[in-house]
Amino acid sequence: MMLKLLVSGLVVVGAFFAGQSVSSAPQDEKEDAKKKAMEKMMADMQKCVEAAKPGEQHKQLAKLAGKWNQTSKFIMPIPDMPPVESTGTMEYKPIIDGRFVISELKSEMPGMDGKPEPFNGFQILGYNNVTKEYEAVWVDSMTTGLWASHGKADAAGKVITPDGTAKDPITPSGRPFRVVIKIENDDKHMMEWWDSMKDGKTLELLGNMTETRAK
Questions:
Q1: How many domains does the chain have?
Q2: Which of 19-23, 65-69, 162-166 has the lowest mean pLDDT?
């Protein structure tokens, strides 16, 4: 919003300066300083405008649009305990002219009594043209906090590795986590969940998810 207001204001100011001769000598130092400040601001705002344009990475993210079937398997930090498996659906939708993609998960997870309970999640995913990183924010029905992560892709753009800090009742001060997204093709991708739940420092593979496009 602030960027939009500044751009709108500069259009008006720019129209005023456009009618003046650039080569003419400034009337005084104060007027010269004002023009130089305006020129710098215009240049800075142009950088902001260029950085806000969706690029190739955003086009790739937009390909996620649609409904996907998800299967997941989480490894319990208890010796000899079998992994917890679940299924669900994830629906992706591009927003704000393709700058971001939102997704909604609907699935079930075993509750404290072992019976299946609804597990829902929501994510906003994007690519930051300034930092050259993918950024994500995740929320779900098992927490009231936001899980933010960011990271780069490999040279081929097929493996994205966002890192973040988890703050929950286990480690309220925070512990590192990592998500590894492996894009197999436009209809299938896999995700690994790495967490440092045991000691708050060492990342271990705790789960993996596979999403295939619903036909």
A1: 2
A2: 19-23
